[in-house]
Amino acid sequence: MHSSIAFASTSNMLHRSCCQATKRTLSGAHHASRIVAASHRTITSTPRLATPVPNRSASDAALFSLNRSVRSTAPAATRTLATIADTQEHRPSPLDTDIEAMRDSPDDLILKPGEEIPGFEVNNATSEMLGRPIYLDMQATTPIDPRVLDAMMPFMTNQFGNPHSRTHAYGWETEKAVEDARVQVASLIGANPKDIIFTSGATETNNMSIKGVARFYGRSGKKHIITTQTEHKCVLDSCRVLQDEGFDVTYLPVKQNGLVDLELLEKSIRPDTCLISIMTINNEIGTIQPIKEIGAIAKKHKGVFFHTDAAQAFGKIPLNVDEMGVDLMSISAHKIYGPKGIGAAYVRRRPRVRLEPIMTGGGQERGLRSGTVPAPLAVGFGEACRIAKEDMKFDHEHVKRLSDRLYNKLTSACTDIVRNGDVAGYPGCLNLSFAYIEGESLLMALKDIALSSGSACTSASLEPSYVLRALGSAEDMAHSSIRFGLGRFTTEAEVDFVAEKMVQIVRRLRDLSPLYEMVQEGIDISKIDWSQH
Ligand SMILES: Cc1ncc(COP(=O)(O)O)c(C=O)c1O
Predict the structure, then answer these.
(1) C-alpha span between 332 and 388 (Å, rounded)
(2) What angle do CA 523, 474, 424 make, to 5 degrees?
């Protein structure tokens, strides 16, 4: 009950901000989306009202995409026309009259209960009523920031040129937008924009970097790669493919907190090592690897390149490829409130890293990744980077505060909770194991919260996560683990709801657990020889 009240009020406040923003559309859509973004965090704050960006249609869409309670009733075609009006001449939209009429009346900026908003259909349902679980799976993907959508809209409509068309203005304008985006991506990691290659995401970049470097330098006999046991599947799979091609791969174990042992890493380097691939932040446990130290080790050995999968770190923590000695980096847009389907590879040119491309064709992207760069996605990615850079400190503090709040609420109400990973890891990835609870029961009970568990559900069995196994977690603890993924738009109300729900579920399941009962009675269950029973 408490939670549904919290949600209703969150939703209404957000809704109010959105509608106020819409009414202010006189000064633009960015405006609106900025308020939406801000309102997700602080609910009442309406900062940065001064940025006028004249694009009403993107605003509609942004509101629609983020606020499930407000839906534009303007026909899609009209919305497209309104977008075109931004860059060409103004064409009337059905929203114009109503919005213009509100311009001079400050009272209109306050939304009254039950009030109708011109051009919008208002649905006062809360997220619970709409049957949408609370989203705490930010490592899987993040919602698009409405400011990103605003930036993309013109390139989804009238600025549709192929950025590689050199003979006309359609191509030139999208080429410029793509190059601007490249600068924004590069600036988040202190790179030269020329070293940024657009790809479809981090999976492609990891494949391209690992296979590309190995195949190029493998020709001269450098056939050894070092990685860790806790990398993302796409890194491990790329390495397995290379093993089939005759490469030798060292999969380093990690310590209990998920960190690599630097001494062991250095000892594993051989004369034929061409690549070290170690991720920056682990997607399951949030452990942050000592990238700078790893980069320094790689630099001591001529001909050893250092690749890092930074899909979970880019835009969340400060990164600088020169300071960290990184030669190749994998980046994804949809982990930082950008669009899905685009990412980037950082590929150092000085000193030059050579890759055998996995995609060939038109020779785009320095010949390393042929194919038309999707300009709307690149623009959205660039904008997501701009926002991430500007808001990194704020976002981090916000996520840390909510993560601490969740952790403290859970651990003060329940015993026997183990935090997986490193305490100094990324706070937006909180991985906890709840002892004496059946992983499957926990999953079933959590259906109104969207999150990931340490059990990878396959058709035949529930396999515990290979990452948790690599930390040395017992199978039952790995099974009972939950990853809470918090982000820019997570609210305190959501965290409180989740904490309350988790405590209820954990208590209920433990009440049913014979193991927990034995522990309560003082029996040391680790000393029980189960085989005799
Ligand atoms: C660490 C890591 N690497 C790579 C990927 C793959 O990213 P993308 O979805 O952009 O291909 C992910 C996303 O799940 C990830 O967390």
Answers:
(1) 13
(2) 110
Which residues approach ligand 1 with their CB closer than 6 A? Answer: 139, 201-203, 206, 232, 234, 279, 283, 309, 311-312, 332, 343
Per DSSP, the residues of 325-354 read T-SEEEEESTTTTS-TT-EEEEE-TTTTPP
Protein residue closest via CA to atom 7 of ligand 1: 202
Beta-bridge partner residues of 118: none
Q: How far is the CA of 336 from the centre of ligand 1 (A)?
A: 12
Count of H-run helices and E-run strands, the chain:
18, 17
Task: State the CB neighbour count (10 A cutoff) for residue 241.
Answer: 14
Q: Is 120 helix (H, G, I), strand (E, B) or coil?
A: strand
428, two tokens: 């937006």
Distance CA 41, CA 151 (A): 21
Q: Quick check: 355 and 208 in contact, CB under 8 A?
A: yes
Confirm whether 414 is a catalytic residue.
no
Question: In order of start, what are the domains of the chain with their CATH numbers?
Answer: 134-140+391-525 (3.90.1150.10), 146-389 (3.40.640.10)
CB 256 within 8 A of CB 238: no
Instruction: Kindly report the backbone phi and psi dihedral angles of residue 220, in degrees, each rounded to the nearest multiple of 5, phi listed first.
Output: -100, 25
- Measuring from atom 2 of ligand 1, which residue has the nearest CA? 311
**Distance in Å, CA 408 to ligand 1 centroid:** 29
Give the phi and the psi of residue 244 in degrees, each rounded to 5.
Answer: -65, -25
311 CA distance to ligand 1 middle (Å): 6
Measured by CA distance, the residue closest to atom 11 of ligand 1 is 203
Rounded distance between C-alpha atoms, residue 122 and residue 115, angstroms:
9
Q: Give the angle 170-187-178 at the CA atoms, nearest 5°.
A: 10
Mean pLDDT, contiguous 10-residue spans, the chain (533 residues) = 29 33 32 37 28 36 36 36 37 43 52 55 50 92 97 97 97 98 98 98 98 98 98 98 98 98 98 98 98 98 97 98 98 98 98 96 96 98 98 98 98 96 97 86 85 64 85 89 96 96 94 86 75 54
What distance, in Å, lies between the first and last C-alpha atoms of the chain? 44
Do residues 250 and 220 touch, judged by C-beta distance below 8 A? no
Residues 6+ apart with CB under 8 A from 244: none
The amino acid that residue 311 corresponds to is A
Closest-lying ligand 1 atom to the alpha carbon of residue 203 = 11
265's CB contacts (< 8 A; 6+ apart) are 226, 252, 276, 278, 294, 297
What are φ and ψ of residue 355, in 5° steps? -130, 145
